[in-house]
Write a structure and sequence with these properties.
The chain is of the alpha/beta class. Helices cover about 50% and strands about 20% of the residues. The chain has 24 helices and 21 strands. The strands form four sheets. It has an eight-stranded mixed β-barrel with strand order 13-14-16-17-18-19-20-21, surrounded by four helices. A five-stranded antiparallel sheet has the order 2-1-5-4-3, sandwiched between helices. Strand 3 and strand 4 form a beta hairpin. Helix 2 packs across helix 5 and helix 15 crosses helix 16. The longest helix is centred in the first third of the chain and has 62 residues. The chain is elongated. The model has no long low-confidence stretch (mean pLDDT about 85).
């Protein structure tokens, strides 16, 4: 079957043709160009599959780079032309239908992997050739010692024709012979090289063991050694080599000469340095990236006792708005300008600025007085962001939030330090932004605990870790129990019993509040049915009412009404036995669409209670349009009634609210009743029901019945 010209195979073939035409002229091969193209086709296929693979595999790129060496594409131009072709055409011909930005990033990583694989394979091949030449040279030298007249021509051919540099010196370091390859590497004349003593060829980057190994060799204590060594050329430039030095002995086994084999690795080293730079620096701003920053931070934290560090973690406030309104190009220019300003803030020894990603930057300082220095560094950063940044004719005001961590090294890992700085930065952002905050271990611990609870929430409901306690609602007129409020608890495996204030906000943030609220309602309604079956109806023949709290997320969930109807029908409980409590703040400014579910439930007979009434600054006139039948007064109104005489202001406020509620045919429930004086005063004021520790703390359902039975028999 022949592939369509524009099909995947046709596009892969076009990529291969372009590649072969670029590389073939600089390749030492006996193949024709069409034959060479067929040799590249499977390599292009591997790159195409690696580009579109679900998980990126750098090994594919390295294998392609190594395969180029196996195909005799060993010239530096072959690698550069191959990388140019991959950069220009791989995504074009093989990335159809994918995320182009992601594919370009993958293509760049594949190019890096190809270069690394190419360099590694070329080095291994050269080392193999080097070893073979070294062995040949040694054998040739041995033959010279035994029969010079038969081996001179053979040795000279190896010596002069070798692709690597070869030099022979005596044991005093005087250079006796050098081949043409060595002359080309150093760029000087043979006379200039022979005038230099081996011991004079030192370089500032020499490893400590280089000259120790040399002395051992010339003393006859070792036969050879292999090191990476730099040399100065006559013009002052640096030549990097893989250097192998071997000891040549005379027929009696005495040390006589030293033979040096040099492979020029300068270009390879520069390539590796460039790849290293690209791997450790941010492409947009040129700052060190997360990888290099972590290396520096870990080195700092392992510096030993007596050292200290300071770290500023910066996140720009409102950067997403700039990207969304002006575009990512403008956002990138803003980040570059911010990076330049931050770089200017950290110029002292021991200071470093890096970009971690997005609009997050970090500045590190080290020294004996980092407590003062890190504060000054944070202040300099904040001051550097004050001046507006002009982009596309607009002056943009830049704000930032900074989390500051300072302390002795050796106590925390790099990940722990960065996590603390991140948590502190978000604390500064939550406080309004455009400020910096110092790390607080207790705040960190709370944030980590919150994260752990958030992570555990989704499975806690499935594991049955939630349970419900009930707090009775007592009629202030006759003291009878009229129902109970359902209060959910979490029996956490590590933290024990947690109240709703610890996990309900987390559940609302993650969306778990909807299934959790549905579970609480169903369990509570089932409990109401069990109370009716075991104890009959409550006071005046009415069922004990169960109050269930609704969060704002549940209120806006489209399945609220249907879920409530399904639960009541499954349990066989009448709607008037259920009261749904909604906080006043959730209904401030509510439109008709938001109130529609509550109206439908109220029309069915479900009571709606306005919880925490009096704390939301709502317009009292709004009560007329809300489908509520109960007002629950917040405990803040009754705290002044715990002592006698009661606060007259509180009395007037409660008296007015009760009169207003009753005029609208609304019942009034009071929370937080803790003393008999409160209860009596509220009864006099006309409140209908109350709950609080004076009557009972939240507890298991059986405790409610004990109270109800005690009322019935009294």
């Amino acid at each position: 079957m022949i592939a369509e010209p524009d099909g995947p195979e046709g596009r892969l073939r076009r990529l291969t043709t372009i590649w072969s035409r670029a590389v073939f002229p600089v390749t030492s091969t006996s193949l024709t160009r069409p034959e060479f193209e067929e040799q590249l086709l499977p390599l292009a296929g591997r790159l195409s599959r690696a580009l579109r693979a679900r998980a990126f595999d750098a090994g594919e790129g390295e294998a392609v780079g190594a395969a180029l060496v196996d195909a005799h594409c060993t010239a530096p131009e072959a690698l550069s032309r191959s990388l140019d072709c991959v950069d220009a055409y791989l995504v074009l011909y093989c990335g159809e239908g994918g995320d182009q930005e992601d594919l370009r990033a993958r293509s760049a990583r594949l190019q890096h992997a190809m270069a690394a694989g190419f360099a590694r394979a070329l080095r291994e091949r050269t080392l193999a050739e080097q070893e073979a030449i070294a062995q040949a040279a040694l054998r040739a030298q041995g033959v010279v010692a035994q029969a010079l007249h038969t081996s001179e021509a053979r040795f000279r051919a190896v010596f002069e024709g070798a692709a690597i540099g070869i030099g022979i010196a005596d044991l005093e370091g005087n250079v006796l012979q050098v081949n043409g390859a060595l002359l080309r590497m150093f760029g000087g004349s043979e006379q200039s090289l022979r005038l230099r003593n081996v011991r004079d060829w030192t370089h500032a980057d020499d490893a400590p063991q280089v000259w120790r190994l040399y002395e051992e060799l010339v003393r006859g204590e070792r036969e050879h050694y292999h090191v990476e060594k730099a040399f100065y050329r006559p013009d002052g430039t640096v030549l990097w080599t893989n250097l192998t030095v071997s000891l040549l002995r005379d027929p009696d086994g005495n040390p006589q000469y030293q033979l040096a084999l040099m492979e020029d690795t300068t270009e390879r080293r520069l390539l590796n340095l460039r790849l290293r730079y690209e791997a450790t620096h941010d492409a947009l701003t040129g700052l060190p990236n997360r990888t290099l920053f972590f290396e520096r931070l870990e080195k700092t934290l392992n510096a030993g006792d007596g050292h200290r560090f300071g770290l500023c973690y910066l996140d720009l406030d409102g950067f997403k708005t700039i990207n969304d309104s002006l575009g990512h190009a403008a956002g990138d220019r803003l980040l570059v300008e911010v990076a330049d300003r931050l770089q200017a803030c950290a110029t002292a020894p021991g200071e470093m600025v890096a970009r971690l990603g997005g609009d997050e930057f970090v500045a590190l300082t080290t020294g004996p007085d980092t407590e003062r220095e890190v504060d000054e560094l944070a202040s300099r950063i904040m001051n550097a962001l004050v001046a507006p940044i002009r982009i596309e004719g607009r002056e943009l005001t830049v704000r930032g939030s900074i989390g500051v961590v300072e302390g002795p090294v050796g106590e925390r890992s790099a990940a722990e330090v960065l996590r603390s700085a991140d948590i502190t930065m978000y604390r500064a952002k939550s406080a309004g932004g455009n400020r910096f905050e110092l790390a607080d271990p207790e705040a960190d611990a709370r944030a980590i605990t919150r994260h752990g609870l958030t992570t555990a929430l989704p499975t806690a409901l499935d594991r049955g870790e939630f349970f419900i306690e009930y707090q009775p609602l007592v009629h202030l007129g006759d003291g009878s129990v009229r129902g109970a409020e359902a209060l959910v608890r979490w029996l956490h495996p590590q933290h024990g019993v947690l109240g709703p204030d610890r996990f309900i906000p987390l559940a609302e943030h993650t969306g778990l509040i909807v299934p959790l609220g549905r579970w609480v309602m169903e369990q509570s309604v089932r409990q109401a049915r069990e109370w009716r079956e075991r104890y009959g109806d409550g006071n005046e023949g009415r069922p004990l009412r169960i109050n269930v709290n609704l969060s704002p997320c549940q209120l806006t969930h489209p399945g609220l009404v249907q879920d409530t109807v399904d639960i009541l029908e499954r349990t066989g409980v009448s709607p008037d036995a259920l009261c749904l409590e909604v906080t006043e703040s959730a209904l401030i400014g509510a439109d008709d669409d938001l109130l529609k579910p509550l109206r439908r439930l109220a029309e069915m007979g479900v009571d709606i209670a306005l919880d925490d009434f009096g704390t939301g600054y709502s317009n009292l006139a709004n009560l007329r349009r809300l489908p509520v039948s109960v007002l629950k007064l917040d405990r803040s109104f009754t705290q002044g009634m715990q002592q006698f005489p009661a606060d007259p202001v509180d009395l007037k406020i409660v008296e007015g609210i009760v009169a207003l509620a009753h005029s609208l045919d609304l019942a009034v429930t009071v929370e937080g009743v803790e003393t008999g004086a409160q209860a009596e005063q509220l009864r006099i004021l006309g409140c209908d029901t109350a709950q609080g520790w004076y009557y009972a703390r939240p507890g298991p359902p059986d405790r409610l019945h004990e109270l109800a039975l005690a009322d019935a028999t009294s």
